[in-house]
Design brief:
This protein is mainly alpha-helical and 94 residues long. The chain has three helices and three strands; from the N terminus they run E-E-E-H-H-H. It has helices spanning 23-41, 46-77, 87-93; strands spanning 2-4, 13-16, 19-21. The protein has a three-stranded antiparallel beta sheet. Strand 1 and strand 2 (13-16) form a beta hairpin.
């Protein structure tokens, strides 16, 4: 995992194995795991726990994606003091 407080566009960035990690992807994973665990734990019998776990995972993932997108929107709406050039502008300057 590699993280930087500011990339070329001036926003925080984290990467795992070269791929960017976004807030919605993290919250979706956490929500899915939490939803599946809760659903399986509260299942009345062993036979229904698998289906209930899948449903809980789907609901938790959906809620996590929504929460992550809202967090992204809140962070993006913050005005930054120093506006750095975008990647496209940076490439033109070279």
């Amino acid at each position: 995992i590699k993280a930087t407080p500011e990339n070329l566009e001036g926003v925080p960035e984290a990467r795992m194995l070269g791929y960017p990690i976004t807030i919605p992807s993290v919250t979706a994973a956490v929500g899915g795991i939490a939803g599946a665990a809760t659903a399986i734990r509260t299942a009345p019998k062993l036979g229904g726990s698998f289906r209930r776990g899948l449903g809980g995972a789907a609901l938790g993932t959906g809620a996590g994606i929504i929460a992550g997108n809202l967090a992204n929107a809140a962070l993006a709406s913050k005005a930054t003091e120093q506006k750095l050039p975008t990647v496209g502008q940076y490439e033109i300057m070279q």
